[in-house]
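> example.struct
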C-alpha cells in the first residue's frame, strides 16, 4: 500500500502533465516547422507551376505567331520565286533581242565599210566622167574651130560640136553634183558606222552585264528555294510544338489544380498545428498558473522578477529626466544605413543600451538553459540585445543574422505576442532562425513590462528545450 498522500500524488501528476505538455508543444512545433517548410516549398512549386503555365502560354502564343509568320514567309517566298523566274525569262528574251540587235549593228558596221568602198569607187568613176567631159569639151572646142575654118562646109559640124559641148558642160555639172552627194553620203556612212559600232558595243556590254545579273538572280532563286524549305521546316516544327503544348495543357492544368489543392491542404494543416501550439502553450501556462512546480517554473519566476526590475529602471530614468515618457513610448524607428538584415534606432535605444545590459547579461550565466535575455517593445522591436548577439555587422548577411540581432524588429508570431502580452507571463515554443536556413528549437518565456501602469512591452527569456 502506497504511503503517498493524494495531494502529493496529484502534484506529481500535475508536474508530469506540465512537462509532458511542454514536450508535446515542442514536438508539435517541430512538426509545425516541417509543415511550414513544406508549405513554403509547396507555394514555391505552385508559383513555379503557375509561372510555367504562363510561360507555356507565351510559348504557345509565340508558336502561333511563328506559324503565321512562317506561312506568310512561304507565301512571300513563293511569290518572289515566281517574280524572279519571270524576270529571268524576260531577261533571257531581252538578251536574245539584244544579241540580235548587236549582231545587226555589227553587220551594219561591217557593211558600211563595203558601202564606203563602193562610194569611193563611184567617186573615182565620177572623176573619170569629169575627165572625159573635159576632154569632150576640148574636142568640141577644137571641132568648132575647125568647122569655122571650113566655112560653109563645116557649118553642120559646128552645130554638132556645140551640142557636144553643151552635153559636156551638163555632164561636168552633173558630175559636180554627184561629187557633192557622194561627199554627203560618205559623211553619213561614216557617222552611221560610228553609231552602229557604239550601239553594238553597248549591246555587248548589256549582254555581259545581263549575264552577271542572270547569275545573281539564279543564285537568288536558289536561295529563295532554300529559304522556302527552311521556312516550311520551321512551320512544321512549330506545328509540332503547338500540338505538343495543346496536349500538355490538360496535364498541366491537372498538376496546377493538384498543386493548389496540396498547398491549401498544407496551409490548412499548418494553421491547425499553429492552433495546437497555442493550445499546448495554454495548457503549460495554465498548469504553471496553478502553482504546480514544473521544469519551467524557475524560468517563469525569473523573467517576472527581471521584467519588474526593468520597469523600475525605466521609471527611475523618467523621474530623473534621463528620458521623457513620450520618447520612451515613441515607436518611430529610424533605419540604420547599410545594414543587412536591417537595423533601426528608436528614441529610447540609447537609454536601453545604457541601462539594460547590467540586467540582461548576468541572466545568461544563471541557468545553462538560457540562450538570451532581451526586452522588446509592443511592436517586437529589440533595442538592446546580449553582447554576444550585438556584434558589428559584416558583409555577410547570414553571419549578421546570427550575431547582429540587436536594434531589429522581430514582428513574427512569437516576437509580437511577447511584446503585446499583458498576462503575468507567456510561454511559447518556436523555431529560432539563425540564418543560412538553420533553425533552433527553443522556448520563449516572457513577462510584461509596465511603466507607470502603462504597457511598454515585454522581457523575453529564451531557453533551450
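> example.seq
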Amino acid at each position: 500500500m502506497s504511503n503517498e498522500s493524494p495531494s502529493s500524488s496529484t502534484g506529481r501528476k500535475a508536474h508530469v502533465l506540465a512537462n509532458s505538455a511542454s514536450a508535446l508543444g515542442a514536438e508539435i512545433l517541430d512538426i509545425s516547422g516541417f509543415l511550414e517548410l513544406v508549405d513554403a516549398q509547396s507555394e514555391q512549386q505552385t508559383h513555379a507551376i503557375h509561372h510555367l503555365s504562363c510561360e507555356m502560354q507565351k510559348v504557345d502564343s509565340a508558336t502561333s505567331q511563328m506559324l503565321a509568320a512562317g506561312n506568310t514567309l512561304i507565301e512571300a517566298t513563293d511569290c518572289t520565286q515566281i517574280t524572279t523566274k519571270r524576270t529571268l525569262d524576260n531577261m533571257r528574251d531581252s538578251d536574245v533581242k539584244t544579241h540580235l540587235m548587236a549582231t545587226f549593228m555589227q553587220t551594219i558596221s561591217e557593211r558600211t565599210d563595203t558601202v564606203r568602198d563602193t562610194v569611193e569607187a563611184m567617186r573615182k568613176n565620177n572623176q573619170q566622167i569629169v575627165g572625159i567631159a573635159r576632154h569632150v569639151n576640148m574636142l568640141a572646142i577644137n571641132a568648132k574651130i575647125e568647122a569655122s575654118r571650113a566655112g560653109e562646109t563645116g557649118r553642120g559640124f559646128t552645130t554638132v560640136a556645140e551640142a557636144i559641148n553643151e552635153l559636156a558642160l551638163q555632164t561636168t555639172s552633173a558630175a559636180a553634183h554627184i561629187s557633192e552627194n557622194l561627199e554627203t553620203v560618205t559623211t553619213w556612212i561614216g557617222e552611221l558606222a560610228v553609231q552602229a559600232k557604239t550601239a553594238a558595243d553597248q549591246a555587248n556590254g548589256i549582254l555581259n552585264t545581263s549575264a552577271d545579273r542572270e547569275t545573281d538572280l539564279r543564285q537568288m532563286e536558289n536561295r529563295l528555294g532554300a529559304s522556302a524549305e527552311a521556312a516550311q521546316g520551321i512551320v512544321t516544327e512549330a506545328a509540332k510544338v503547338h500540338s505538343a503544348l495543346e496536349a500538355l495543357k490538360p496535364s498541366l492544368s491537372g498538376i496546377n489544380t493538384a498543386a493548389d489543392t496540396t498547398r491549401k491542404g498544407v496551409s490548412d494543416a499548418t494553421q491547425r498545428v499553429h492552433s495546437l501550439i497555442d493550445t499546448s502553450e495554454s495548457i503549460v501556462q495554465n498548469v504553471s498558473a496553478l502553482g504546480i512546480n514544473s521544469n519551467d517554473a524557475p524560468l517563469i519566476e525569473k523573467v517576472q522578477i527581471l521584467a519588474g526590475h526593468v520597469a523600475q529602471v525605466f521609471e527611475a530614468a523618467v523621474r530623473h529626466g534621463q528620458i521623457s515618457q513620450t520618447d520612451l513610448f515613441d515607436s518611430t524607428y529610424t533605419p540604420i544605413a547599410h545594414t543587412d538584415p536591417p537595423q533601426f534606432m528608436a528614441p529610447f535605444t540609447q537609454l536601453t543600451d545604457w541601462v539594460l545590459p547590467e540586467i540582461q547579461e548576468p541572466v545568461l550565466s544563471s541557468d545553462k538553459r538560457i540562450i538570451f535575455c532581451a526586452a522588446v517593445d509592443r511592436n517586437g522591436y529589440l533595442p538592446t540585445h546580449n553582447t554576444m548577439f550585438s556584434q558589428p555587422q559584416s558583409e555577410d548577411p547570414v553571419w549578421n543574422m546570427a550575431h547582429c540581432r540587436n536594434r531589429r524588429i522581430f514582428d513574427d508570431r512569437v516576437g509580437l505576442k511577447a511584446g503585446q502580452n499583458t498576462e503575468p507571463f507567456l510561454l511559447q515554443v518556436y523555431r529560432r532562425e539563425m540564418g543560412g536556413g538553420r533553425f533552433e528549437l527553443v522556448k520563449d518565456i516572457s513577462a510584461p513590462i509596465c511603466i507607470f501602469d502603462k504597457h511598454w512591452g515585454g522581457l523575453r527569456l529564451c531557453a533551450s528545450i
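> remarks
The first helix runs from residue 6 to 150.
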